[in-house]
Design a protein that fits this description.
alpha/beta; 10 helices; globular; two-stranded parallel ribbon
Length: about 260
């Protein structure tokens, strides 16, 4: 029978300290589903005993995961948020019966795309398995989960691919309980370079600045060329329309054409 590894054992002298776990214990990681997703996955309700049973401890760096269904088109998505870092990534909802077995490979791909070294990313998956499904998302994670769901819905509506949506989530900034980028914490925990997150932000700012300066230099011409690819090489044109309304209004002034 599989049992969970406690984070520490309390010896008879009363002093809590980490010791080698007894034989037969292995860690587990719980994928905690929101009510809609739990119902779709046929996860039974927790027994109403007044006190919730203790969660099985996990032996990984990112902790348990909170998952929620996001109704997007052309395919439904599942947003997953780490309980320890509040970093998030998406994976396809369908086929639903294989969600549990697909989670590990999807997480591995997301970690590699974030910049986690391959050996550390693989080790995180190995230390997380087996995955078990459960209910009961921690309150401290619910707010982040809701915010991420709104971001994913907006991004999918603009036509972003799954990879582009996950890249957007990697740049998510958390303001509470303390300001910071969850992706930085993931890279710090798993041997990556946290400075990559800030570098990506600086690169995007530089791209927007170059695109803005390029378009401003053409104001007054009959044809105004706004190279969206200069600012967002991997994003759809619609995002630029939202981000740069002053340029759009200037370019669409009477007597001017936009390409």
């Amino acid at each position: 029978a599989r049992r969970a590894v406690p984070d520490a054992f309390e010896p008879s002298d009363g002093e809590s300290r980490a010791v080698a776990p007894p034989p037969g214990f292995i860690p587990v990681t719980t994928l905690r589903l929101n009510p809609a997703l739990a119902k779709a996955c046929h996860v039974p309700d927790a027994p109403r005993t007044g006190t919730a049973p203790p969660a099985p401890p996990c032996g990984n760096a990112l902790g348990d995961w909170a998952l929620a269904l996001v109704h997007t088109r052309p395919q439904k998505l599942v947003i997953a948020v780490s309980s320890r870092t509040h970093w998030a990534f998406c994976l396809p909802y369908a086929p639903m019966p294989t969600l549990q077995s697909r989670f590990g490979p999807a997480l591995l791909q997301a970690l590699l795309s974030l910049g986690v070294p391959p050996d550390r990313a693989r080790a995180e998956i190995d230390h997380s398995e087996p995955w078990i499904l459960g209910r009961g998302i921690d309150r401290s994670t619910v707010g982040h989960l809701t915010q991420y769901r709104h971001s994913v819905t907006w991004a999918a509506g603009e036509g972003l691919s799954l990879g582009a949506i996950n890249a957007r989530l990697a740049d998510h900034l958390v303001l509470r309980p303390r300001e910071g980028y969850p992706a930085e914490e993931v890279l710090r925990l798993l041997g990556g370079n946290p400075a990559l997150v800030a570098q990506r932000q600086n690169d995007k700012s530089d791209q927007w600045r170059k695109a803005y300066d390029h378009a401003q230099a053409q104001i007054g011409r009959e044809e105004v060329h706004i190279p969206v690819a200069l600012a967002l090489p991997d994003q759809p044109r619609l995002e630029a329309a939202h981000q740069a309304p002053p340029l759009r209004e200037a370019a669409q002034a009477p007597g001017r054409q936009v390409r």
